[in-house]
Each structure stands twice: as C-alpha cells, then as structure tokens.
Here is the input.
Amino acid sequence: MSAPTAVSPWFTWHKNLFADGVSVLDLACGEGRHARAAAERGARVEAVEVDAERLARAKKAGRKHRRRIRWRVHDLERDPPPKGPFDVVMVFYYLDRQRFSTFLNAVKPGGHLLAETFLEQQRTLESGPTSDDHLLGQGELVSLVRPFQIVHAREVLEIIDGRPRFVASVLARHLTK
Here is the structure.
C-alpha cells in the first residue's frame, strides 16, 4: 500500500492546534504532508524522517515553507526525538511501542500529541502492514498516551486517498504539573 498523499482527516479536524508561533515536531514525517499543512497554518515545524530520499522529496515539496520547516534525517529507533519541548508532537502511521514514552516527553506541559496509525483489522483488507509490530489492538493507542488527558479519540474504518483503512487516532493533552 502506498503512503497517502492527502492530509489525514484527523489532522484536518484538529487544525486549530496549528497557528503562528506554535512549535511542532513531526515524527517519521515521510514526505512531509502533515509538516507542510502545519506550516501553512503558521506553525514552526521540525520534521524528522529516517529515509533520506523521502526527506529530500519532502523538502522539495515543502520549499515554499523553508523558513517554517526544519527537515532532518533522524533515526527514531536509534536516537531519541529532537529536544523539545514542543507545543504539538505529531505521529502519523508510525508505531514504536518501546519508544512511545519518549515521544510523550517531547510535548511541553499544556501541549498536545496528535497521533494516528493502523489497527489490527487492517489485515482483513489485504493491504497495509501485517506485522503485529505495526498494528494496534483495540484501545491500545489510548493506553499508550497515558498519563496524558484524552481530548478526542476514535477507532474507525475510513477512506483515505480512495482506499479503506482501519485506524486508531488520538489527540491527547499533557497535563501541567
């Protein structure tokens, strides 16, 4: 299954998070569709991706936002996320259960985590990831963001770029201490 080219409806629903002066970290940004969308709304974005070729395509597609997006080759499996804290951390279609808590640590108190990835039911569609390492169980994404406050969460079958996908999505807020 090829990567979606359209911005996720989950991002669009929560686009009010992104405005002038908001700092954003886009983890495993791929070709940068969400980083570009956040920058278009005025956010300052740090976008990281392990695949240098994908990042080069992202940088080319996002050249009009070059002052708002910092593109970095970064291996999340080897290195911690870039130093924050950030107002918003985005994680779309990337799952690393072992390091998820480090993603949460990049969110500043009062900030948000916006995440979405595949559910186990995706296997029934005979497309997308098949490994348990890349598929969430029912209710799992909500448990991964604890102790953050759940603002909005869902598990749905959704059509993205004309293809069905079973996804779990969450918007969670870092409670101030």
Notes: The mean pLDDT is 91.
